[in-house]
Amino acid sequence: MTASFQDKREYETKGETQDMTPTSSRTLSSDGETDQVLAVEPRVLNGHTLTKEIPFRDVCIAIWDGLLLEEPAAAPVELPSPDTLRNRLLIKVKYAPPEEPVSASSSDDEEGSKPGASYKMTQDLGYHFMRTYPSGVRIDLSNMDPSSFWRKGIQIVALNWQTWDTGMMINSGMFADTGSWVLNPPGYRPYLQNKPGSNIVNTKDIKLSITFYSGQNIPLSEDCISSQRFNPYVTVELHVEGLGDDHSDESESYERDEKYTDFTTSHKGCDIDFREDHLCFPHINGVLEELSWVRFQVMDEGFKWDELAGWACIRLDRLGNGY
């Protein structure tokens, strides 16, 4: 006789208890012995919150019922190229139980301490996706600067859309007017390594100067109720990093950012004449324009603090003369 049922168990991996939902099929033979085949299915969670998990199978059925394959396709001999994956949905699974659990301590001691570990990771990023996200113990909704991770070759940076800060503005400037994806610049694409000059990161020496003439219909800041109390000015900030720069020292990176920030004088009203206010940034060497941005913020000058009224973030290689 044969019977099938659902079974829920606790699996312990890497010192942490993971609550998995496996599908268990058990066959009872005539001699009383039991054979069991276990297949663990993924589940969907809302981060580290108290909401209950949802089986991934139920999510797929709810969205694509009738469009799903009855049987899984055969495992591919080689990974498909991005071109063959166009018009398809890619599902990224964060966790899969290892066949042989490896403790975190042994991994850190043996692999993480090797001098070539970080270099090997950089090389692997040319062929594999990697995502970075904020610490789980953080209590605010601030965002990381995604550009520092993109420059290291990391493709995906998790951001909080609830907060429009520097990280979200740079992210918007990166993907503006694109099909939601951006091709890495030459030197970040290993499949071109056999072509002459394809592994060279093309940097430039830049000197940026901006002249402000006028502004019309500038929106009021959130707490401003009258244009008579509106005192706008524009801050301009360059987000650049030279080849080989390392932002491991957080205070040093802030000092570097401070050097490339300038602002206009403040005026009154929503339609203003900047009187050709000229901002000139110092000469900067070794700038990769595809991974550098200029950010404009219209600020309302206040008594206690200044409020944001509007902003724009543009990648340097998309910025032309007379923009």
Automatic annotation (TrEMBL):
In residue numbers, the region (Disordered) covers: 1-35
Biased composition range(s): Basic and acidic residues: 1-17
Q: Where is the PI-PLC Y-box domain?
A: 128-188
One Pfam family recorded for the sequence? PI-PLC-Y
Name a biological process GO annotation. Answer: release of sequestered calcium ion into cytosol
List where Polar residues composition bias occurs.
18-31
Q: Which SUPFAM superfamilies match?
A: C2 domain (Calcium/lipid-binding domain, CaLB), PLC-like phosphodiesterases
InterPro entries in the record: C2_domain_sf, PI-PLC_fam, PLC-like_Pdiesterase_TIM-brl, PLipase_C_Pinositol-sp_Y
Q: What is the superkingdom listed in this entry's lineage?
A: Eukaryota
Q: Which GO terms describe its molecular function?
A: phosphatidylinositol-4,5-bisphosphate phospholipase C activity
Q: What is this protein called?
A: PI-PLC Y-box domain-containing protein
Q: Which organism is it from?
A: Fusarium ambrosium
